[in-house]
Amino acid sequence: MTTMTTSDRIRFRSVGNRLNLVQEHLEAMQRDVHGLEYAHWKEEVDELWKGIFEQISRMSEGPQRSSLELIRDDWTQFLQYYATLSE
Q1: Does residue 71 contact residue 15 with C-beta atoms inside 8 Å?
Q2: Rounded CA separation 42/31 (Å)
Q3: How would you label 52-71 residue by residue, b for 16+ Cβ within 10 Å and e otherwise?
């Protein structure tokens, strides 16, 4: 990873923390797609992703690439999961 400024380090850590919460939400919702908590979960996870991308957009180029690589698998899984629900 490239040398990061203090701000980039904080943002990178924030991305990682939010990503952990997204992962927990994905696991819970995959177990209970039609549950009562679904709407609440969707709202929460949408806000988490929004926050992740806001933090990434404020980073310099090197840390941005590292962060995008960090979230790639979970973001792809999230998109694939929603695509199968809407079919």
Answers
A1: yes
A2: 14
A3: bbebbeebeeebbebbeebb
Polymer length of the chain: 87
Task: Kindly report, residue by residue over 56-86, the tens digit of the pLDDT.
Answer: 999 999 999 999 999 999 999 888 876 555 4
Report whether 78 contacts 16 (CB < 8 A): no
Q: What is the pTM of this model?
A: 0.84
* Cβ 62 vs Cβ 2: under 8 Å: yes
Distances (CA, A) of 23 to 2, 6, 26, 60: 26, 26, 5, 25
